[in-house]
Amino acid sequence: MNKKVKYIDWGLTDYQNAWTKQEEIFEKTVALKGKNRTENTEIETPNYLVFCEHPHVYTLGKSGHPENLLLDEDDLKNKQATYYKINRGGDITYHGPGQIVGYPILDLDNFFTDIHLYLRTLEEAVILTLADYGITAGRYPGYTGVWLDADNEKARKICALGVRCSRWVTMHGFAFNVNTDLAYFKNIVPCGIDDKDVTSLERELGRKLEMEEVKEKLKNHIANLFKMELI
Fold first, then answer.
1. Rounded to two decimals, what is the model's pTM?
2. 93 is in an annotated binding site
3. Boundaries of domain holding 184
């Protein structure tokens, strides 16, 4: 039987606000798992799939390098962008309007307890979504995320991943460039990779996409791959 997962679209929302709400859900779920274990109860843990967009923001993962942000505080203000050091894995990335940011807050005990499989499954959902638009995508050996032309010198990244997992509860997630302003990536060394390009669905197809249409395709692929029932 498919596991029920609550789907939420926060729309365009401030990064700090989204991070705080994620942390609240995450901590409650981790605490519930701890209570189940210590009190020998079997209260079902909730699962969420959150989609949103953010105003211009750069985030640096806990294993990242601050020098990969190529802007100072004045530059950030001029570009109306913010900057946060956060508790996910990975290096620096950019979020902004026209990008689908996905935050699955899942208890992987309800699905499978394999973080590498979790990452590969999220990637596969994006790969299938791109295939719906006639774009062949895949993986770049040694890196997370979804890439186009990963096997040659034209390799370019269209989706970045960075997650946190504790007691098999996940937070943070992925950023899929749909109608994203790619100029903002020129202000960082994306994910610490300085010799590869970044792209978007708009750039590849030569037209803007309906965000709701792309979200619908993506969330359905995630639901099918994880055997979820979105509610």
1. 0.94
2. yes
3. 3-230
